[in-house]
Amino acid sequence: GVGGARHRPGPPRDADTSRRMQAVRQAMCCRSLPHRIQPAAGYWQLPTQGKSCAVLAGTHKNIPAGISSTRILDHFWKISLDPKTKAHFSFSKDMESNVNTAGKHLGKLDADAPGLANTVESLLNLRFTQDQVKQLLDLNPRIAAQVPVKDLPVLYVLESLGLNPRSTFKVLERCPELLGEKEHRLQSRIDNLRKHGLGEGRLQRVVVHCPHILNLTAKQVNNTVRFFKDKCIFTGQQVTEILQTSPNVLFEKCEELEYKFQFAYFRMGIKQAEIVNSGIFRVSMEELRQRHIFLERLGRYQTPDKKGQTQIINPKPKAIFTTTEDYFLAKVAMSSWEEFDTFKKLLRREEMEKELENQEDRGTSAEQSDSEEDEELSDIEDEGLSLVK
Fold this sequence. Notes:
Blueprint: H1 13-29, H2 52-56, H3 69-76, E1 80-81, E2 89-90, H4 95-106, H5 113-125, H6 130-139, H7 148-151, H8 153-160, H9 165-174, H10 183-195, H11 202-209, H12 218-230, H13 236-245, H14 254-267, H15 272-278, H16 285-298, H17 317-321, H18 325-333, H19 337-388
Antiparallel strand pairs: 1-2
Helix pairs in contact: 13-15
Protein backbone atom coordinates (compact mmCIF):
# COMPACT_ATOMS: atom_id res chain seq x y z
CA GLY A 1 0.00 0.00 0.00
CA VAL A 2 1.01 3.67 -0.05
CA GLY A 3 3.58 4.77 2.54
CA GLY A 4 4.62 1.22 3.30
CA ALA A 5 1.39 0.39 5.06
CA ARG A 6 0.72 -3.28 5.55
CA HIS A 7 -1.89 -5.01 3.45
CA ARG A 8 -4.76 -5.92 5.68
CA PRO A 9 -6.48 -9.22 5.03
CA GLY A 10 -10.03 -8.93 3.69
CA PRO A 11 -13.08 -9.95 5.65
CA PRO A 12 -14.07 -13.59 5.88
CA ARG A 13 -15.87 -15.18 2.91
CA ASP A 14 -19.26 -15.08 4.64
CA ALA A 15 -18.88 -11.41 5.54
CA ASP A 16 -17.88 -10.57 1.95
CA THR A 17 -20.95 -12.36 0.61
CA SER A 18 -23.15 -10.51 3.09
CA ARG A 19 -21.62 -7.19 2.02
CA ARG A 20 -22.29 -7.96 -1.67
CA MET A 21 -25.86 -8.90 -0.91
CA GLN A 22 -26.36 -5.56 0.82
CA ALA A 23 -24.92 -3.83 -2.24
CA VAL A 24 -27.35 -5.69 -4.51
CA ARG A 25 -30.26 -4.62 -2.36
CA GLN A 26 -29.24 -0.98 -2.31
CA ALA A 27 -28.37 -0.82 -6.01
CA MET A 28 -31.63 -2.33 -7.21
CA CYS A 29 -33.93 -0.81 -4.65
CA CYS A 30 -32.75 2.69 -5.48
CA ARG A 31 -34.23 2.33 -8.95
CA SER A 32 -37.83 2.18 -7.68
CA LEU A 33 -37.82 5.79 -6.54
CA PRO A 34 -41.18 7.51 -7.15
CA HIS A 35 -39.71 10.48 -9.01
CA ARG A 36 -38.68 8.09 -11.79
CA ILE A 37 -41.41 5.47 -11.83
CA GLN A 38 -44.68 4.86 -10.08
CA PRO A 39 -44.67 1.78 -7.86
CA ALA A 40 -47.43 -0.78 -8.03
CA ALA A 41 -50.55 -0.25 -5.99
CA GLY A 42 -50.07 -1.11 -2.31
CA TYR A 43 -46.29 -0.56 -2.33
CA TRP A 44 -44.64 1.92 0.00
CA GLN A 45 -43.35 5.05 -1.66
CA LEU A 46 -39.96 6.53 -0.90
CA PRO A 47 -40.27 10.27 -0.18
CA THR A 48 -36.68 11.20 -1.04
CA GLN A 49 -33.61 9.69 -2.62
CA GLY A 50 -31.61 9.92 0.57
CA LYS A 51 -28.28 8.18 0.56
CA SER A 52 -29.33 5.22 -1.54
CA CYS A 53 -28.50 6.76 -4.92
CA ALA A 54 -25.05 7.71 -3.66
CA VAL A 55 -24.45 4.03 -2.97
CA LEU A 56 -25.66 3.04 -6.46
CA ALA A 57 -22.72 4.39 -8.42
CA GLY A 58 -20.15 2.11 -6.81
CA THR A 59 -22.11 -1.05 -6.20
CA HIS A 60 -22.45 -2.68 -9.62
CA LYS A 61 -18.92 -4.04 -9.48
CA ASN A 62 -19.82 -5.91 -6.28
CA ILE A 63 -22.87 -7.69 -7.72
CA PRO A 64 -22.06 -11.40 -8.15
CA ALA A 65 -21.98 -12.75 -11.68
CA GLY A 66 -23.72 -15.83 -12.97
CA ILE A 67 -27.31 -14.75 -12.31
CA SER A 68 -30.02 -15.09 -14.91
CA SER A 69 -31.38 -11.72 -16.02
CA THR A 70 -34.86 -13.20 -16.01
CA ARG A 71 -34.47 -14.34 -12.40
CA ILE A 72 -33.10 -10.98 -11.28
CA LEU A 73 -35.88 -9.08 -13.05
CA ASP A 74 -38.53 -11.34 -11.54
CA HIS A 75 -37.37 -10.33 -8.08
CA PHE A 76 -36.30 -6.82 -9.02
CA TRP A 77 -39.87 -5.61 -9.31
CA LYS A 78 -40.86 -7.12 -5.93
CA ILE A 79 -38.91 -4.48 -4.01
CA SER A 80 -40.90 -2.62 -1.36
CA LEU A 81 -40.18 -0.44 1.64
CA ASP A 82 -39.86 -2.32 4.92
CA PRO A 83 -42.95 -1.29 6.97
CA LYS A 84 -41.12 -1.88 10.25
CA THR A 85 -38.10 0.39 9.80
CA LYS A 86 -39.63 2.59 7.05
CA ALA A 87 -36.06 3.42 6.14
CA HIS A 88 -34.56 0.23 4.71
CA PHE A 89 -35.40 -1.92 1.72
CA SER A 90 -36.37 -5.59 1.71
CA PHE A 91 -36.47 -8.29 -0.94
CA SER A 92 -38.70 -11.28 -1.13
CA LYS A 93 -37.43 -14.04 1.19
CA ASP A 94 -35.97 -16.25 -1.51
CA MET A 95 -33.97 -13.46 -3.17
CA GLU A 96 -30.89 -13.93 -1.02
CA SER A 97 -30.75 -17.67 -1.57
CA ASN A 98 -31.11 -17.14 -5.33
CA VAL A 99 -28.26 -14.63 -5.42
CA ASN A 100 -25.99 -16.83 -3.32
CA THR A 101 -26.61 -20.07 -5.19
CA ALA A 102 -27.11 -18.86 -8.79
CA GLY A 103 -23.41 -18.77 -9.59
CA LYS A 104 -22.87 -22.24 -8.11
CA HIS A 105 -25.81 -24.19 -9.48
CA LEU A 106 -27.10 -22.27 -12.51
CA GLY A 107 -23.86 -21.17 -14.14
CA LYS A 108 -23.69 -18.06 -16.33
CA LEU A 109 -27.03 -17.92 -18.14
CA ASP A 110 -28.16 -15.08 -20.37
CA ALA A 111 -26.51 -12.20 -18.57
CA ASP A 112 -24.50 -11.42 -15.47
CA ALA A 113 -25.87 -9.22 -12.72
CA PRO A 114 -23.57 -6.19 -13.16
CA GLY A 115 -24.48 -5.87 -16.84
CA LEU A 116 -28.17 -6.23 -16.12
CA ALA A 117 -28.05 -3.71 -13.29
CA ASN A 118 -26.30 -1.19 -15.55
CA THR A 119 -28.85 -1.76 -18.30
CA VAL A 120 -31.83 -1.40 -15.98
CA GLU A 121 -30.37 1.72 -14.42
CA SER A 122 -29.74 3.35 -17.79
CA LEU A 123 -33.21 2.51 -19.09
CA LEU A 124 -34.88 3.88 -15.98
CA ASN A 125 -32.73 7.01 -16.25
CA LEU A 126 -34.29 7.47 -19.68
CA ARG A 127 -37.70 7.44 -17.95
CA PHE A 128 -38.86 4.05 -19.21
CA THR A 129 -41.39 2.32 -16.99
CA GLN A 130 -40.81 -1.04 -15.35
CA ASP A 131 -43.02 -2.83 -17.88
CA GLN A 132 -41.24 -1.12 -20.79
CA VAL A 133 -37.84 -2.21 -19.44
CA LYS A 134 -39.06 -5.80 -19.26
CA GLN A 135 -40.43 -5.65 -22.80
CA LEU A 136 -37.27 -4.04 -24.20
CA LEU A 137 -35.23 -6.88 -22.76
CA ASP A 138 -37.68 -9.33 -24.31
CA LEU A 139 -37.36 -7.64 -27.71
CA ASN A 140 -33.58 -8.06 -27.67
CA PRO A 141 -32.25 -10.23 -24.80
CA ARG A 142 -28.66 -9.47 -25.80
CA ILE A 143 -28.94 -5.98 -24.35
CA ALA A 144 -29.32 -7.44 -20.84
CA ALA A 145 -25.55 -7.33 -20.30
CA GLN A 146 -24.87 -4.10 -22.19
CA VAL A 147 -24.66 -0.52 -21.05
CA PRO A 148 -26.99 1.62 -23.23
CA VAL A 149 -24.58 4.56 -23.18
CA LYS A 150 -22.10 2.47 -25.14
CA ASP A 151 -24.00 -0.27 -26.93
CA LEU A 152 -27.56 1.05 -27.34
CA PRO A 153 -27.09 4.43 -29.02
CA VAL A 154 -30.56 4.27 -30.57
CA LEU A 155 -32.07 5.13 -27.17
CA TYR A 156 -30.11 8.34 -26.97
CA VAL A 157 -30.47 9.17 -30.66
CA LEU A 158 -34.26 8.92 -30.36
CA GLU A 159 -34.20 10.93 -27.17
CA SER A 160 -32.17 13.63 -28.93
CA LEU A 161 -34.92 13.75 -31.58
CA GLY A 162 -37.33 14.77 -28.84
CA LEU A 163 -39.20 11.48 -28.57
CA ASN A 164 -40.61 10.69 -25.13
CA PRO A 165 -40.13 7.21 -23.61
CA ARG A 166 -43.54 6.05 -24.79
CA SER A 167 -42.83 7.02 -28.42
CA THR A 168 -39.31 5.57 -28.21
CA PHE A 169 -40.69 2.28 -26.93
CA LYS A 170 -43.27 2.24 -29.74
CA VAL A 171 -40.47 2.73 -32.30
CA LEU A 172 -38.39 -0.11 -30.86
CA GLU A 173 -41.40 -2.38 -30.54
CA ARG A 174 -42.18 -1.94 -34.24
CA CYS A 175 -38.54 -2.14 -35.31
CA PRO A 176 -36.47 -4.01 -32.68
CA GLU A 177 -33.52 -4.41 -35.04
CA LEU A 178 -32.71 -0.73 -34.39
CA LEU A 179 -31.36 -1.82 -30.99
CA GLY A 180 -28.30 -3.18 -32.75
CA GLU A 181 -27.55 -0.17 -34.96
CA LYS A 182 -24.39 1.90 -34.56
CA GLU A 183 -24.63 5.54 -33.58
CA HIS A 184 -22.77 6.95 -36.60
CA ARG A 185 -25.08 5.08 -38.98
CA LEU A 186 -28.25 6.26 -37.28
CA GLN A 187 -27.03 9.84 -37.08
CA SER A 188 -25.95 9.82 -40.74
CA ARG A 189 -29.37 8.57 -41.85
CA ILE A 190 -31.17 11.15 -39.73
CA ASP A 191 -28.99 13.95 -41.10
CA ASN A 192 -29.75 12.80 -44.65
CA LEU A 193 -33.51 12.82 -43.99
CA ARG A 194 -33.19 16.35 -42.65
CA LYS A 195 -31.46 17.40 -45.88
CA HIS A 196 -34.61 16.38 -47.75
CA GLY A 197 -36.79 18.71 -45.68
CA LEU A 198 -37.83 16.47 -42.78
CA GLY A 199 -37.02 18.94 -40.04
CA GLU A 200 -38.14 19.14 -36.45
CA GLY A 201 -41.66 17.88 -35.93
CA ARG A 202 -41.91 16.25 -39.33
CA LEU A 203 -39.03 13.85 -38.73
CA GLN A 204 -40.37 12.75 -35.34
CA ARG A 205 -43.79 11.94 -36.81
CA VAL A 206 -42.25 9.97 -39.68
CA VAL A 207 -39.96 7.95 -37.37
CA VAL A 208 -42.81 7.05 -35.00
CA HIS A 209 -45.16 6.16 -37.86
CA CYS A 210 -42.55 4.32 -39.95
CA PRO A 211 -39.48 3.48 -37.79
CA HIS A 212 -38.05 1.17 -40.47
CA ILE A 213 -37.04 4.33 -42.30
CA LEU A 214 -33.97 4.42 -40.03
CA ASN A 215 -32.84 1.10 -41.51
CA LEU A 216 -32.52 2.65 -44.97
CA THR A 217 -29.16 3.90 -46.18
CA ALA A 218 -28.72 7.43 -47.50
CA LYS A 219 -28.25 5.97 -50.99
CA GLN A 220 -31.64 4.24 -50.92
CA VAL A 221 -33.41 7.42 -49.81
CA ASN A 222 -31.55 9.58 -52.32
CA ASN A 223 -32.42 7.25 -55.22
CA THR A 224 -36.16 7.58 -54.49
CA VAL A 225 -35.91 11.34 -54.11
CA ARG A 226 -34.03 11.62 -57.40
CA PHE A 227 -36.65 9.47 -59.13
CA PHE A 228 -39.50 11.74 -58.00
CA LYS A 229 -37.66 14.85 -59.15
CA ASP A 230 -36.40 13.50 -62.49
CA LYS A 231 -39.18 11.16 -63.65
CA CYS A 232 -42.25 12.69 -62.03
CA ILE A 233 -41.14 16.36 -62.11
CA PHE A 234 -41.99 16.99 -58.45
CA THR A 235 -40.44 19.99 -56.73
CA GLY A 236 -38.25 19.60 -53.66
CA GLN A 237 -41.09 20.76 -51.40
CA GLN A 238 -43.50 18.31 -53.02
CA VAL A 239 -41.04 15.46 -52.48
CA THR A 240 -40.77 16.44 -48.82
CA GLU A 241 -44.57 16.29 -48.49
CA ILE A 242 -44.61 12.82 -50.07
CA LEU A 243 -41.90 11.56 -47.71
CA GLN A 244 -43.82 12.91 -44.72
CA THR A 245 -47.26 11.62 -45.66
CA SER A 246 -46.22 8.44 -47.50
CA PRO A 247 -42.83 7.23 -46.17
CA ASN A 248 -43.67 3.78 -47.53
CA VAL A 249 -42.53 5.02 -50.98
CA LEU A 250 -38.95 4.56 -49.79
CA PHE A 251 -39.51 0.80 -49.64
CA GLU A 252 -41.15 0.43 -53.07
CA LYS A 253 -39.52 -0.11 -56.43
CA CYS A 254 -39.27 2.92 -58.68
CA GLU A 255 -41.06 1.00 -61.45
CA GLU A 256 -44.13 0.55 -59.22
CA LEU A 257 -44.08 4.20 -58.17
CA GLU A 258 -43.79 5.29 -61.80
CA TYR A 259 -46.79 3.14 -62.76
CA LYS A 260 -48.91 4.76 -60.05
CA PHE A 261 -47.80 8.23 -61.07
CA GLN A 262 -48.50 7.66 -64.75
CA PHE A 263 -51.93 6.19 -64.01
CA ALA A 264 -52.85 9.24 -61.91
CA TYR A 265 -51.30 11.77 -64.30
CA PHE A 266 -52.35 10.40 -67.71
CA ARG A 267 -55.32 8.16 -66.99
CA MET A 268 -57.00 10.31 -64.34
CA GLY A 269 -55.69 13.70 -65.41
CA ILE A 270 -54.34 14.67 -61.97
CA LYS A 271 -51.48 17.16 -61.85
CA GLN A 272 -48.45 17.00 -59.53
CA ALA A 273 -49.80 19.36 -56.88
CA GLU A 274 -52.97 17.28 -56.48
CA ILE A 275 -51.07 13.98 -56.62
CA VAL A 276 -49.05 15.03 -53.56
CA ASN A 277 -52.21 15.43 -51.48
CA SER A 278 -54.19 12.60 -53.11
CA GLY A 279 -52.70 9.76 -51.09
CA ILE A 280 -52.23 7.54 -54.16
CA PHE A 281 -48.81 6.42 -52.91
CA ARG A 282 -50.39 5.03 -49.75
CA VAL A 283 -52.70 2.59 -51.57
CA SER A 284 -51.94 -0.41 -53.73
CA MET A 285 -52.13 -0.22 -57.50
CA GLU A 286 -55.05 -2.64 -57.42
CA GLU A 287 -57.10 -0.44 -55.08
CA LEU A 288 -56.14 2.63 -57.10
CA ARG A 289 -57.55 1.12 -60.31
CA GLN A 290 -60.61 -0.39 -58.64
CA ARG A 291 -61.87 2.86 -57.14
CA HIS A 292 -61.14 4.96 -60.21
CA ILE A 293 -62.69 2.58 -62.76
CA PHE A 294 -65.70 1.98 -60.50
CA LEU A 295 -66.42 5.73 -60.35
CA GLU A 296 -65.79 6.05 -64.05
CA ARG A 297 -68.32 3.35 -64.96
CA LEU A 298 -70.85 4.85 -62.57
CA GLY A 299 -70.45 8.14 -64.43
CA ARG A 300 -69.08 9.90 -61.33
CA TYR A 301 -65.56 10.53 -62.67
CA GLN A 302 -64.40 11.83 -66.03
CA THR A 303 -60.87 12.25 -67.32
CA PRO A 304 -60.26 15.96 -68.09
CA ASP A 305 -59.56 16.96 -71.68
CA LYS A 306 -56.40 18.74 -72.84
CA LYS A 307 -57.69 22.00 -71.41
CA GLY A 308 -58.47 20.37 -68.08
CA GLN A 309 -62.23 20.61 -68.62
CA THR A 310 -64.86 18.02 -67.67
CA GLN A 311 -68.61 17.82 -68.19
CA ILE A 312 -69.13 16.75 -64.57
CA ILE A 313 -67.60 17.78 -61.25
CA ASN A 314 -65.11 15.13 -60.29
CA PRO A 315 -64.67 14.23 -56.62
CA LYS A 316 -61.40 15.27 -55.01
CA PRO A 317 -58.66 12.64 -55.41
CA LYS A 318 -58.09 12.75 -51.66
CA ALA A 319 -61.71 11.72 -51.05
CA ILE A 320 -61.27 8.82 -53.46
CA PHE A 321 -58.06 7.31 -52.12
CA THR A 322 -57.53 8.32 -48.47
CA THR A 323 -60.97 7.42 -47.12
CA THR A 324 -62.31 4.16 -45.76
CA GLU A 325 -64.30 1.90 -48.05
CA ASP A 326 -67.51 2.68 -46.16
CA TYR A 327 -67.01 6.44 -46.64
CA PHE A 328 -65.98 5.98 -50.26
CA LEU A 329 -69.12 4.01 -51.08
CA ALA A 330 -71.53 6.18 -49.09
CA LYS A 331 -70.23 9.68 -49.88
CA VAL A 332 -68.21 9.42 -53.10
CA ALA A 333 -69.52 6.51 -55.17
CA MET A 334 -73.00 6.59 -53.60
CA SER A 335 -73.24 2.86 -54.13
CA SER A 336 -73.61 -0.31 -52.06
CA TRP A 337 -70.96 -2.68 -50.82
CA GLU A 338 -72.53 -5.55 -52.75
CA GLU A 339 -72.33 -3.62 -56.03
CA PHE A 340 -68.68 -2.71 -55.42
CA ASP A 341 -67.80 -6.29 -54.51
CA THR A 342 -69.44 -7.62 -57.68
CA PHE A 343 -67.62 -5.00 -59.73
CA LYS A 344 -64.23 -6.02 -58.28
CA LYS A 345 -64.85 -9.67 -59.18
CA LEU A 346 -65.85 -8.74 -62.73
CA LEU A 347 -62.82 -6.46 -63.07
CA ARG A 348 -60.47 -9.25 -62.01
CA ARG A 349 -62.09 -11.56 -64.58
CA GLU A 350 -61.67 -8.91 -67.29
CA GLU A 351 -58.01 -8.49 -66.40
CA MET A 352 -57.41 -12.26 -66.46
CA GLU A 353 -59.09 -12.58 -69.87
CA LYS A 354 -57.09 -9.65 -71.18
CA GLU A 355 -53.86 -11.21 -69.92
CA LEU A 356 -54.73 -14.50 -71.67
CA GLU A 357 -55.42 -12.61 -74.90
CA ASN A 358 -52.07 -10.85 -74.62
CA GLN A 359 -50.32 -14.17 -74.08
CA GLU A 360 -52.07 -15.63 -77.14
CA ASP A 361 -51.15 -12.56 -79.18
CA ARG A 362 -47.54 -12.87 -78.10
CA GLY A 363 -47.60 -16.57 -78.99
CA THR A 364 -49.15 -15.86 -82.40
CA SER A 365 -46.65 -13.12 -83.15
CA ALA A 366 -43.81 -15.44 -82.14
CA GLU A 367 -45.12 -18.14 -84.49
CA GLN A 368 -45.45 -15.61 -87.31
CA SER A 369 -41.90 -14.44 -86.69
CA ASP A 370 -40.63 -18.03 -86.79
CA SER A 371 -42.60 -18.65 -90.00
CA GLU A 372 -41.16 -15.54 -91.62
CA GLU A 373 -37.65 -16.60 -90.66
CA ASP A 374 -38.26 -20.04 -92.14
CA GLU A 375 -39.48 -18.46 -95.39
CA GLU A 376 -36.40 -16.23 -95.56
CA LEU A 377 -34.11 -19.21 -95.02
CA SER A 378 -35.97 -21.14 -97.71
CA ASP A 379 -35.58 -18.24 -100.16
CA ILE A 380 -31.87 -18.03 -99.44
CA GLU A 381 -31.46 -21.76 -100.02
CA ASP A 382 -33.35 -21.53 -103.33
CA GLU A 383 -31.14 -18.66 -104.46
CA GLY A 384 -28.07 -20.64 -103.54
CA LEU A 385 -29.19 -23.64 -105.51
CA SER A 386 -29.95 -21.53 -108.59
CA LEU A 387 -26.49 -20.00 -108.48
CA VAL A 388 -24.88 -23.45 -108.27
CA LYS A 389 -26.81 -24.59 -111.34
